[in-house]
Amino acid sequence: MKRLLLVRHAKSDWENRELKDFDRPLNKRGNKNAPEMARRLLKKDLIPQLLVSSPALRALTTAEYFAEEMGIDKSSIVKRPEIYEASSSTLLSVINSLDNRYGFVALFGHNPGLTNLAVNLCNCDVYNIPTCGVMLINFPFDDWQMISYWTGDQKLYDFPKNVEAERYEEND
Would residue 45 be called left, alpha or beta, if left means φ above 0 and alpha means ψ between -120 and 50 degrees? Predict the structure, then answer.
């Protein structure tokens, strides 16, 4: 079985209008939410074997926060330029090209492609993965090349403002 964790980058900073979209950093909330979401996954023992990220600053910084919280070497994050501004089909191509040594991979990217991918992979009821939102999808295959639309099973969906998750954390 393959497991894919889709992670939308944390909230970015729009203050400096001179910056290119690609170079936007995380804002204060993004810098708080990224480690928080990583810790939520850690509490559920959901630690990806490989982190694959868009090289855009906000996505890569989000991936680095996850790596730090999960004890993963930041230098092992794989940067894939085609993830930036990618369509659902481009993201699927990235997934299909993953190394089969890894059974659990986290993909850090951007909307609308990431939400469209989630909907297409598992026909979920999500219309917009919010910033720093995560979705875990399981697939009944041992080969990433076998993954295609409508073959996944959504196992987890969480995001920073998810009140249910906050209640769950408090009751642990």
Answer: left
Rounded CA separation 51/62 (Å): 11
Q: pLDDT digit string (tens) for 127-162?
A: 999 999 999 999 999 999 999 999 999 999 999 998
Q: Is the confidence at residue 171, as pLDDT, over 50?
A: no
From 44, 56, 52, 74, select the one nearest 5 (Cα to Cα).
52
Instruction: Evaluate whether 62 touches 132 at the Cβ level (below 8 Å).
Output: yes
Could you tell me which of 112, 137, 138, 139 has the C-alpha nearest to residue 127? 112
- DSSP assigned state of 30: H
Token pair 């790596």 is at which residue? 67
Give the amino acid at 121: L
Give the Cα separation of 152 and 118 in Å (integer): 9
Q: Identify which of 110, 57, 122, 104 has the alpha carbon closest to the alpha carbon of residue 84.
A: 110
Q: Beta-carbon neighbour count of residue 93 at 10 Å? A: 12
In tens, the pLDDT along 80-97 reads: 999 999 999 999 999 999
Judge whether 10 and 132 are in contact, CB under 8 Å.
yes
Helix/strand/coil for 17: coil
Give the pairing type, strands 50-53 and 104-109.
parallel
